[in-house]
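Sequence, please.
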């Protein structure tokens, strides 16, 4: 039987503010900051043993949590990019997390993760040699724009998916993939992209459209509505 996994949550981005000086993950929704909802969604799953939160240097908003749901919350300092912060988090994990153990990586400002989606990702991903990501099929019509702002073409959407998080990979494989992408001067936009550069093919696990990232005030209002529905 497979054991537990740890999660890495990069929360060190400096371009993460709207409508003020508070980083998105520390905005309040339902009497708690977004990051608290995110960590609760992860740690409520019995397979998740703990979380490494990667914070910015000098982060004065970090509440100093050390545990949640009787599971440890550790912190480390991140880098200038999301990829650098994920790598820092992987390297700071406890020694009990072995090189070939699977690790979840989840966005700090993606608080509406469904337990069923997380469970499905863990079940499918840990039975694959590479791992898996939550994703959603593209359902909108896609247009390619020209330099003048006009439409150049309509792009086929068949087989196109939107990458979500969490993403699930083995600790050492992901760390190596991120290191090699950085050495090549390539800024990867998600962890799966780094793995793809290694010639690896992570699985796509369909997740809910409600697993959105809070990037605008409208997203925050949407999450507050989701919380009200739960209540």
């Amino acid at each position: 039987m497979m054991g537990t996994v740890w999660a890495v949550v990069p929360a060190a981005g400096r371009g993460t503010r709207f409508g003020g000086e508070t980083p998105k993950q520390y905005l309040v929704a339902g009497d708690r900051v977004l990051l608290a909802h995110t960590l609760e969604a992860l740690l409520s799953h019995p397979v998740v043993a703990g979380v490494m939160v990667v914070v910015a240097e000098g982060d004065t908003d970090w509440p100093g949590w050390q545990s949640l749901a009787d599971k440890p919350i550790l912190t480390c300092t991140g880098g200038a990019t999301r990829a650098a912060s994920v790598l820092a988090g992987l390297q700071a994990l406890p020694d009990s997390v072995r090189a070939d153990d699977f690790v979840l990586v989840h966005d700090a400002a993606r608080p509406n993760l469904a337990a069923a989606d997380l469970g499905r990702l863990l079940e499918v991903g840990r039975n694959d040699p590479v791992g898996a990501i939550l994703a959603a099929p593209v359902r909108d019509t896609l247009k390619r724009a020209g330099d003048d702002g006009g439409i150049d073409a309509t792009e086929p959407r068949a087989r196109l998916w939107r990458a979500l998080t969490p993403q699930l990979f083995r600790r050492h494989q992901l760390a190596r993939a991120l290191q090699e992408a950085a050495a090549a001067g390539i800024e990867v936009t998600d962890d799966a992209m780094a793995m793809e550069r290694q010639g690896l093919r992570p699985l796509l696990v369909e997740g809910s459209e409600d697993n959105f990232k809070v990037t605008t005030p409208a997203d925050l209002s949407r999450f507050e509505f989701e919380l009200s529905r739960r209540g």
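The longest strand covers residues 161-170.
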